[in-house]
Amino acid sequence: MTDLTQLGVKDIRDGVRDGTFTAREVAESLNAAVADAAALNAFIVTTPDHALAAADAVDAARASGETLGAMAGVPIGMKDLFATNGVQTTAASHILEGFTPRYESTVSQKLWDAGAGMLGKLNLDQFAMGSSNETSYFGNVASPWRKDGSNQPMSPGGSSGGSSSAVAARIAPAATGTDTGGSIRQPAAFTGICGIKPTYGRCSRWGVVAFASSLDQAGPMARSVEDCAIMLGAMAGFDPKDSTSLQMDVPDWEGALSADLRGKRVGIPREYRMEGTDQAILDSWEQGKAWLKDAGAEIVDVSLPHTKYALPAYYIIAPAEASSNLARYDGVRYGLRDLPEPGSGAGASGSGLQDMYAATRAAGFGDEVKRRILIGTYVLSAGFYDAYYTQAQKVRALVARDFERAFEQCDVILAPTTPTASFPLGSMNADPLTMYLNDVFAVPASLAGLPAMSVPATINADGLPLGLQLVGRPFDEQGVLNAGLAIQQRAGFAAKPEKWW
Fold it and tell me: Which single residue of 241, 293, 395, 456 has CA 20 to 30 Å from 110?
């Protein structure tokens, strides 16, 4: 019998519809795979009963002749940033440890309505702040990939590292991710899978723990472009509970997939040839151009002149919004409440309100979260707001304008996803700035709110995957997916990690 854990979204959905296997058989196989992969630390909480209940509902619907949803019979991993009714939601933080929502995020509810089940809640960088999945309160996630001839644990990327690790390790056919400055695309590139950040507003943010509200966007992570198109179709749609939600119809991205790029122009931004980028990345970029040209596209040079300012602007805007969003975690209404030792606070008992705030937030937030809160509070403070935050927003507008002008000359942009392949866990912890540079190619599309996707391209000399990034016009997820499909078909990327866990 087919190893059901090796199948992707489309193959599982079609197999369940055709009666080749049951949804329960799929759920049982993947539940067992999740249990067998504890060494990856990809899941904070596992929910095998949820996956089985959803599978049984799909099998019953099929038996009664009902029309099955787009994700029918597909158990997925849910990034632990999405509120799940009755299941702990922590954002990988201590301050929310034990918090169990009594409501469902819009994105997760749409997926359940489409027939998906939940294997569990996936680990991530705490509050989605990180590029290596080492800031989680519940311990770092390990990539299923290792360098050839080495047992050194590698980073799965961040913040959606639990999602990327689970999909790459074949313990989940797909997973949700969120992307603020590259947190879907960078981990997808590190682990040899696909991931797409749709246009800002395509997927509702309601019920998703907020990091930077003007940047956060949910998206799918899976092993193929087709699977991402299917899952994105189930996730997207207008939500009146989210004021930033786009009131637009959801296209049939799967049905319109085409790798024929005749008549399309692919832009190559000259500013993305940055110092410090691995030669293997640059070589894969050249290969990507050849693949898209073979698909019928015309390759043109474009300029994005404010690229070098995008990352500094992002690391002002995102922490500023984070400091505001995370102010709600104060120990008063929900989550952790900590009190100082008696006699150590301002009052006689040491338990005044300000003391409780300080003790709760000191114990509840990790170092990276504290760092970003401090940066954000500083740039929003009187006397510095105009000097930093206002200037960063002006740069953001210039970055968006660069893309508008570039898209007058091309239909989609091809670039590297990351400047390097995955790196060993712990190798960058002493240098936050170097870690931040991992997002240098991903951040500009986030600042402009554009759809962008990472597709696996090749393997480097160390045996690690490399990804290519495609950026499209606003609302043109189809163009991004089609170009991604063209690369996927020509790259023929079939490598998968050797099991060590």
Answer: 456
- Cβ contact 42:84 at 8 Å: no
Packed helices 225-235 and 477-491: angle between N→C axes, nearest 10 degrees: 160
Longest dimension (CA), the chain: 76
> What beta strand segments (E) does 400-451 contain?
412-416
429-460 pLDDT per residue, tens: 777 777 888 899 999 999 999 999 999 999 99
Residue whose pair of structure tokens reads 């099955």 in the numeric block: 68
Q: Per DSSP, what are the bridge partners of residue 289?
A: none
Which DSSP category does 388 fall into? I
Report the range of poorest mean pLDDT among 143-152, 260-269, 416-425, 429-438: 429-438
323 is catalytic: no
Strand residues in 7-151 grouped as ranges (E): 43-46, 75-79, 117-122
Quote the DSSP letter at residue 127. Answer: G
User: Measured between alpha carbons, how far is 246 from 242 in angstroms, rounded to an integer?
Assistant: 9
Alpha-carbon distance of 473 to 484, in angstroms, equals: 14
Number of H helices, E strands in the chain: 15, 11
What is the C-alpha end-to-end distance of the chain, expressed in Å?
24
Choose the catalytic residue: 10, 29, 79, 110.
79
Catalytic residue among 108, 132, 143, 159: 159
User: Is 381 a catalytic site residue?
Assistant: no
Active-site residue flag, 79: yes
Nearest to 163 by CA among 276, 79, 70, 52: 79
Residue of 183, 245, 284, 323 marked catalytic: 183
pLDDT, tens digit, 9 for 90 and up, residues 103-115: 999 999 999 999 9
- Could you tell me which of 20, 123, 14, 32 has the C-alpha nearest to residue 74? 14
Task: Name the fold adopted by 4-143+153-256.
Answer: Amidase signature (AS) enzymes (3.90.1300)
Q: CA 313 to CA 24: how far, in whole Å?
A: 48
pTM for this model (two decimals): 0.96
